C-alpha cells in the first residue's frame, strides 16, 4: 500500500501592494484647494482645476480611501463657544511610566477641552493644546488631568495669546 499523497496547501492570496501610487499634480491641486476650503463643492473644485466633475469626485474619493485625506473638520472659534483661553501644557512623564506613553497620550486626547496632543522629543514628552473658559478652568484641567497623575513628573503651561494658522501642507 502506498503512502497517501500529500496535498499542497492552497496558495495564499497575494498580499496587497503596500506601495501606494505617488500623488500627481492633480492630486496635489485637489489637496491644496481643500486645505484652503474643505467645504468646496465638487463642481467648483473641478472647475478650478479644469477637470471633469466626475474625475474630480473619483480622485477626491480615492484620496480619502488611501488615507491621504483623513477627514473634513469644522474650524471652531473657541471664544464664541465659551472656551476663549487656550494654552500649551508641556508634560514630562516619570521614567518608570515610559512604557505607557502612547496609552497616556490617547487618554489625554479624550479629556474635555483638549484640542490636540503631540508626542514630542526634547525636555518634555507631550504638548497638550487645551481650551478653557478662564484661568480657573485651565488651572483645574492642569491640576486634575496632568500634574496629579502618578505618571507625571512635571508640567509647564504656556498661555496662547494669538494663533496664526499656517499655510497648510507642503505640496
In which range does the helix fraction lie? 25-40%
Q: Can you tell me the overall shape?
A: elongated
Q: How much of the polypeptide forms β-strand, as a percent range?
A: 15-25%
Oligomer: single chain
Number of strands: 4
Gap between N and C termini, in Å? 70 Å
Structural class assignment? alpha+beta
- Biggest β-sheet strands, sense, barrel: 4 strands, antiparallel
Average pLDDT: 89
Instruction: List the uncertain runs.
Output: 13-17
Radius of gyration, whole Å = 24 Å
Features:
171 residues; alpha+beta; 5 helices; elongated
Note the topology:
Blueprint: H1 25-36, H2 42-49, H3 53-65, E1 85-93, H4 101-109, E2 114-119, E3 126-132, H5 135-147, E4 152-160
Antiparallel strand pairs: 1-3, 1-4, 2-3
Helix pairs in contact: 2-3
